[in-house]
Amino acid sequence: MNIFNYIKKYGNYSFEEKEFTEVDSIVFSFLAYADLNDILTKSSKMTIEEIAEKHIELHKNKEKNILAVREANKLLQIMKDTIRYKDCLIYHYDYIGNLDLQFGVFSIEYQKNKVYIAFEGTDELFSGWIEDFMLSCEFPTISHKKAINYLNKHYTFSNKELIIGGHSKGGNLALVAGMYSNFIVRSKVKFIYNADGPGLLDKQFYSKRYRTISNKYIHIIPESSYVGLFLNHDHDKIVKASNKGILSHAASYWVIEDDHFVDSTLNPMSQKLDIKFKEWLNKYNDEDKFNFVSNLDMILRRANVSSALELVSKDSKLFVLLKEANDIDEETKKQLNELLTIIIDCFKATKKEEIMGFINKVFKNKHNEENYENIND
Predict the structure, then answer these.
(1) Which of 40, 51, 197, 225 has a CB 3.0–4.6 Å from the CB of 44, allowing a cystine?
(2) Domain, as residue range, for 45
(3) Which one, of 90, 94, 212, lies nearest residue 143 by Cα?
(4) CB under 8 Å to 205, separation ≥6 — which residues?
(5) pLDDT tens string 32-82
(6) CA-to-CA distance for 134 and 284, rounded, in angstroms?
(7) Is 68 part of a structural domain of the chain?
(8) Which tens digits make up the pLDDT trace of 170-212?
(9) CATH no. for residue 367?
(10) CB 173: neighbour CB atoms within 10 A?
(11) Contact assessment for residue 271 and residue 97, using Cβ atoms and an 8 Å cutoff
């Protein structure tokens, strides 16, 4: 079963009747992708049921978005009808989405004085994608600083027990915030969940700060992981996924048995990708990588492209983007070609129809209901 089946199976059990599980963590971290910007403010405090009702009113016939956002919106509507989730309070909401920054977070009080802090992963905005690449050469990023400040601001003088988590980039933010929040906040953190998100640069990975939280840290990655293999990583819990390709990054494809994910091992493709990523990262110094990411950012800005949805829309800007990419310097082209070659080489066994299916599911308004109902165990 998947996370949607899990909610249906355990939705009638309160958190008092059935304790918080690793699957609940993924449910909450994936919920962070939901489009709540017109519903919540920084001072709002609403239940999941209340938020879902408002969401229905505001988002009728607005299904066009990337896969993660569409699935999170669907998740919200399923959760609102359950005893387990409907009365969970969401507050301290913060979202920034513009050309320079993509950052989202909220707190979920799922039991009295027990709070899950969910950091959003990368959504459709390319500013978030650029920051993903910037993780290879810059620390802390702007989002890192905001994540750390969020914990310190809201939980230094709080009596809440904390669990921190996120999916993709959100998992990396949870890890860094858990490491670099002040010692009072760190003492309240029970677990840190990174769901297939990037790891850390050498300096942070081998630091005392990391060692102080490592016993609380869980890095959940699918057997076909690619995002979760970026940078240094350990404490890996590798789980089975019903989709063996690149779509397995979506947590809705992770296979659950009873109330936990089914253990697995990295497949050969991901093992190879892990090695190749490390080779590419070690080949270039931080200045080279910074220039590479800056050039990618410049291409997007010149083409006036801010969102992945603009590349698959009726008035696609893809050709403008390709034209701008043709003008970048030779060194950046070389680095980009090497990175693309690594990815293509590792995914060369993937069938063309699977690639097209991936594009349709991730970016286009094609909602595959089997993903919610019929994923095989």
Answers:
(1) 40
(2) 3-277+358-373
(3) 94
(4) 199, 231, 232
(5) 998 898 899 999 999 999 999 999 888 765 555 677 788 888 899 999 999
(6) 13
(7) yes
(8) 999 999 999 999 999 999 999 999 999 999 999 999 999 999 9
(9) 3.40.50
(10) 31
(11) no
